[in-house]
Specification:
Blueprint (H helix, E strand, L loop, with lengths): L2 H5 L9 E2 L10 H14 L6 H19 L6 E4 L2 H11 L7 E5 L8 H10 L2 E5 L8 H7 L4 E7 L11 H10 L3 E5 L11 H4 L3 E5 L11 E5 L44 H17 L1 H19 L6 E2 L12 E4 L3 H10 L2 E2 L1 E3 L2 E4 L7 H12 L2
Helix pairs in contact: 2-9, 3-9, 9-10, 10-12
């Protein structure tokens, strides 16, 4: 891997040591160029429409390859929030049913279920974390024959705890429940295979680890469940024959495109295809390996400093590319780091550090040096 060549594709590296991919990922040059191309083409009206559609379908194929899905199982969305909302509103519910989630979720994977609980009278069951970790036995106690759905992030946004989705899916399916996962903090940083994870639905945005534009995302719907999840916001793209504009009866597409109502973000998905192409050129296994090496280097350096307490899991099964450090005055520390050209976030009352594969050992050492400064 020629890291210098790769870094030349990231303009952000000329100004910052950027460790905030769990918030917003910077755009590689190839993504910018693909996006600009489509925007420029729009100045000529609709004469490039066919190529935009072809590019969008190429992006859908790339997404499917990235997560181990079939192309027909991928719906293009604007965000993780939209994907989760499609699932929340597309299923049917009965009053004696329940939905299981946890107390570490980002609002996008919490508010939809709270709203459903009020609307349909279903019970919302919340698994409580234990010292910023989630345990399967606690989910087992909450999930029963009346559980309709388990909603869980694959990787938690605040401290990077990675749930054993395969085991959780096994527990849920044994009780007849579905599993939907918010995977925005996982897609783009680690290998994902929806078949191995055994999830029913997976939603993600493109603007974080996937290094794509804002207002891009996707929803995976297991093929066998397409007729169980009704499209509740429909438009011309939802139909089996979207270019037939005559007055007629809706025939939902036989694929996950049925969940796409209107125009997709042509420039954004042109860029996403290029971003995924970059990750595939490097190899997602190599991406994950470099991220883990960065986290290990950070952890080893921080453990020598008594100022910070690591609040992220370090075991192999539950680790991710997010490291959260508990400390006094995290906001002030983050501001000081930014003054020195280092970008991180404050989440969960601590410093959240989230490096990507193109970061370097030198940048990690610079961060450690600043963290250790008096």
């Amino acid at each position: 891997m020629n890291i210098d060549l790769i870094r030349s594709e990231f303009p952000v590296t000329s100004k910052y040591a950027y460790f905030d991919h769990a918030a917003v990922g910077p755009l590689p040059t190839r993504v910018l160029e693909a996006t600009k191309r489509v925007v420029q083409e729009k100045s000529e009206g609709d004469i490039h429409w066919e190529s935009w559609e072809e590019g969008t379908e190429a992006a859908r194929k790339s997404i499917a390859e990235l997560v181990g899905a079939r192309v027909e199982e991928i719906a293009l969305t604007t965000s993780t929030s939209e994907g989760l909302a499609i699932v929340a509103n597309g299923l049917s519910y009965e009053k004696d049913q329940n939905i299981v989630t946890c107390d570490m979720e980002f609002a996008s994977n919490l508010f939809p279920w709270q709203a459903l609980a009020k609307r349909y009278g279903v019970e919302l069951r919340v698994v409580r974390n234990r010292e910023a970790t989630l345990r399967m036995e606690d989910f087992s106690e909450m999930i029963d024959a009346k559980t309709k759905l388990v909603a869980i992030s694959y990787v938690q946004y605040s401290n990077g705890f990675r749930t054993d989705l395969a085991e959780l899916s096994k527990i849920a399916h044994e009780n007849g429940a579905y599993v939907v996962t918010d995977a925005v903090q996982a897609v783009g940083q680690m290998p994902i295979d929806v078949t191995n994870l055994r999830v029913d639905f997976l939603a993600s945005s493109g603007y974080k680890w996937l290094l794509s534009l804002i207002s891009t995302g996707f929803l995976y719907v297991k093929r066998d469940l397409l007729n169980e999840l009704w499209p509740t916001i429909v438009g011309y793209r939802s139909d089996e024959n979207p270019m037939d504009f005559s007055y007629r009866t809706l025939q939902p597409a036989q694929t996950a495109r049925r969940y796409e109502a209107g125009q997709v973000n042509f420039p954004g998905f042109a860029g996403m295809k290029e971003a995924i192409g970059l990750l595939q050129e490097v190899g997602i296994e190599n991406v994950w390996s470099r991220i883990c090496s960065h986290i290990d280097l950070l952890r080893n350096g921080i453990e020598k400093n008594g100022t910070f307490q690591i609040r992220s899991s370090i075991n192999e099964k539950n680790r991710s590319g997010i490291l959260n450090l508990a400390c006094q005055n995290p906001g002030s520390i983050a501001d000081r780091l930014f003054e020195h050209g280092i970008v991180i976030s404050v989440r969960g009352g601590g410093l959240r550090i989230s490096p990507h594969f193109y970061n370097t050992v030198e940048e990690i050492r610079k961060l450690l040096s600043e963290l250790n400064a008096p």
